[in-house]
Amino acid sequence: MNRSYKSRRGLQYFLYALPFAAFVLAFAYVPLFGWIYAFFNYKPALSLAQMDFVGFDNFVKLYRDREVVGQVLTNTLAISFISLLFTPLPVIMAILLNEIGSGKFRRIVQTTTTLPNFISWIVVFSLAYAMFSPSSGLVYDVLEKLGVQKPMIGVLGSNDWAWMFQILLGIWKSLGWGMIIYIAGIAGIDPELYEASKIDGANRFQTMIHITLPGLAPTFFVLLLLQISNILNNGFEQFFVFYNSLISEKLNVLDYYVYSSAFRAYDYSYSTALGMLKTFVSLLLLFGANLFSKKLRGESLM
Description:
The protein has helices at residues 2-29, 57-64, 66-85, 89-98, 103-114, 121-132, 138-145, 159-187, 191-199, 204-229, 236-242, 248-251, 254-263, 268-296. The chain is an all-alpha fold. The protein has one domain: MetI-like fold, CATH 1.10.3720.10.
């Protein structure tokens, strides 16, 4: 009876997971067959049999364009690595929020910080333009009234601020969502550990250091690994809407470069080769970060 019940439950869970598995298969694995176009001179109107086989010419072109590709990778990696420095911020905010006694205040903070995650980047750009436009932006108008002269070029067109401004926007947009994950992790920590710490005379700071942080460490490392594996995925939408000629040198990241190569230069085979390069580098980063994480936690590398 018990085995039959477990079998039915297992079948039920399998059926629940089947649509999501089909979705991942259709949109994450089936497109890999399109990599074959990197070895052909792809033209949308032609079938594969009618296309010219070019071998590794597109990869040779990547090497020939190494200055441009190098600049693109520099922008991509710089923005991603600086963003990684702020990875502990959701952990810190979640712990501090958990220490607040007022449940109503916690809900207000959690709602207001999570809301930006559901705002599209087009709306974010509209808000940023309304705030930071040098001609009519609210921030510069207020500063002008305070006696500060308006700049000729604001942060939206400044090369010096391009990276940091985009990073801060990304943090503002994702902070609340990250906090939700860590708050759920805190809720999963055994309450008896906190009760035992109170009996032993530990204060709140000691409890956070010796119970809460170790309890969140597995979640933190998993999310860090996922972020490292996506280090070349800065997000196309953000840089597409904020891209302009003044800061094109700084915001030409890999996702945007793949898009412009395919849909502006109409070089689909070259953009496919770029996508393959991105995948292989991401896999190397993921495995490297996984090995480093295991070594840091003292686990066996085998």
